[in-house]
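Worked example 4.2. Below are the chains of a multi-component assembly; read each line carefully before continuing.
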Amino acid sequence: MSDSFISLSGVHKSFGPQHILKGVDLEVEKGETLVIIGGSGTGKSVTMKLIIGLYPPDEGIVRFDGKSWSERSNKDSDKERQRFGYVFQGGALFDSLNIKENIAFPIREHTKKKEPEIDKIVKNCLESVGLENIEHKFPAQISGGMQKRVSLARALSLNPEVLLYDEPTTGLDPINSQKINELIVKTKNKHDVTSIVVTHDMQSALYVADKIVMLYKGYLIFKGSPSQLLASDVPEVKTFIEPALQHVRRQ
Amino acid sequence: MWDFSVFLNRTFKQYLSPYPRFTFFYRQFIEIGVKSIPIVLVVGAFVGMVLAVMTYQQFSILGIESMMGPFIAVPMVSQLGPIMTALMILCRVGSAMTAELGSMRVTEQIDALHCFGINPIKTLIVPRTLVCAAMLPCLTVISDVIGIIGGWVLGVYVFDINESYYLEKTRSYFMAYDVYVGLMKALVFGFVISLFCCFKGYTTRGGATGVGKSIMEAVVVAFIAIIVLNFFMSLIATELWQTYWAPDV
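Applying the procedure described above to all two chains together yields the following C-alpha cells:
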C-alpha cells in the first residue's frame, strides 16, 4: 500500500462508451505541487474529481491520507472533503450570492463562527488573493480573472490542506495568468498546502510545478520534475511542450 | 425512472436528517410563496368569474340561476383552485427551479458544494420541495377565497341574484370535506412539481441546450402528472365520501 498523502493505483474510469482513464498510477506527497498536463479530453479534470472523491473509480483505488474513498461513509467523505479547496475552471461561484456570501458559505456551513469573525476571514481571504472592496458585488459583476481569484479565496476559507486547481489560467490574458501563477506559488508557501494543478498552459505548469505528470489518451506517459520534462525524449511529450518552448526561446 | 428513484431516496433520507439553515427556507418562502400571490389572485378571481358566467348561462335556461352559489364554490375549492394554482406555480416556480439547478449543474456550482463537503440535496432540494409543498395549500386557499368572491360579485351584482339566497344556498351545499380534499391535492401537487422540477434541474447535462431540454421535460411531465393525479385523487375522495361520510338516504 502506498504511503503517499494522495495516491491513485491502477485507476480506470469510463463515461458510457468513453474509456477516459486506463490504469493511472499517481502519488502526491504532502506539501508538493503536482501539475497534470495533457491535451483536452485526456482525463485531467476527471483525475481531479477522482482525487477529491466526487467520482468513484471503475477499477483501482484512490487514497487520501492513507484511506481510500470507498472505505469511507458518505458523512465521513463529506468531512474529509473539508480538507480540500477546489478552484474550478469557470470559478463555480454561486451566482445568487454576492462575493462575501460566496466566501462565507463554507464557513457558515461547517463552523459556528460569529459574523464579525466571518467578516474578518472573508477580508483576509480576499486580501490574500489581492482583492478588496468587492464583497458586495455579484459574480456576474466582476471579470473572469477576478472570479478565479475569488474562487481561490473561497477555497482558502476553511484553511485547506490540499488545493486543487482546474485550468486556473485558461481564458485569461497573460497578465492575469501570471497573477494566478504567482498566487498559486504564494499560497503554497504561505499556507503550506499540497497543490494539484490541471493545465495545458505549459508556461503556467513550468512556473508552479515541483513535479509534472502528463496524461495522453488515458495513460500517464510522463512523471518527473520540470527540468526532466524539458529533457524528455517521449515523442508525445516533445510534441506537447514544443510550442511553449518555442515561445520561451522567442522571448 | 431508476435515476428518479435514487433521487427520491436521497431526498427522503435528507428529510429525516438535520435540516439546513433557516436562510435556505426563507429564500424559498419568498420566491415560491410571497412572490406568487399576485398571479394566484389574478388567476383565482378570473376562474371564479368564468365559473359564474358558465353556471349562470346553463342555470338560467333551467330557471334555477339562484342556485349557482354552491356550483361555483364547490368546484373552486375541490378542483379548479388546486389545479389552477398548481399550474401557475409549475409555470412560475417549477420552471425557474429547473433552470436555476440546471445552470448550477452545468457551471459546476453543484460540484463545488460537494467539494466543500456540503450535501447539495440537503441545501438545494430539501428547502425547495418542503417549502413548495407547504406553500401550495396556502396559495390554494387564497385562490379559492378570491375565486368565490369573484363568483359572488358577478352573481349578485352583475346577474342580479338575491344575495341572501345566494349565500344561504352556498352555505348549505358547501362542505368542509371539499376544502380538505382541495388542500390535500394542493399538498401532493406541491411535492410533485418541486420533486420533478428539482430532479430534472439537478440531473441536467450538456450546457444551455441541456438546461432548456430539462425545463421543457420537467414542465411537461409535471403538468401531465398534475392532471392525472387530480383525476385519481378526485375518484378516491368521492369513494371515501360515499363509503364513510355520505348521509344515508
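Take a moment to check your reading of the output against the notes. The mean pLDDT of chain A is 88. Chain A touches chain B through 28 residues (CB under 8 Å).
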